[in-house]
Write a structure and sequence with these properties.
By secondary structure, this protein is an alpha+beta fold. A 5-stranded antiparallel sheet has the order 4-3-2-1-5. The longest helix is centred in the N-terminal third of the chain and has 17 residues. The protein is globular, with a radius of gyration of 13 Å.
């Protein structure tokens, strides 16, 4: 039952992360450095869900501190 619950949590994180593609995010990278940029893809590595930014930085989903709609920057 524990494994099923963990799998469900991971699937939920992946779905939420997928909704962030194209959004501008801020947070802490994999080595806890400050990171910010547009999300271009989402990856699952082990139990972690990672957001890949346009500069190649990756932010674990749990380290995101801010999400901004790109329309604020004059985008679509």
């Amino acid at each position: 039952m524990q494994k099923s619950l963990e799998a469900l949590v991971t699937e939920n994180q992946l779905a939420s992360a997928g909704n962030l593609i194209g959004k501008y995010v801020e947070g802490r990278g994999e080595v806890f450095d400050e990171a910010a940029g547009f999300v271009i893809s989402v990856a699952k590595e082990g139990d972690s869900v990672l957001l890949e930014l346009d500069d190649g930085t990756r932010i674990p989903m749990g380290n995101v501190s801010k999400v901004v709609d790109p329309a604020i920057f004059g985008g679509p």
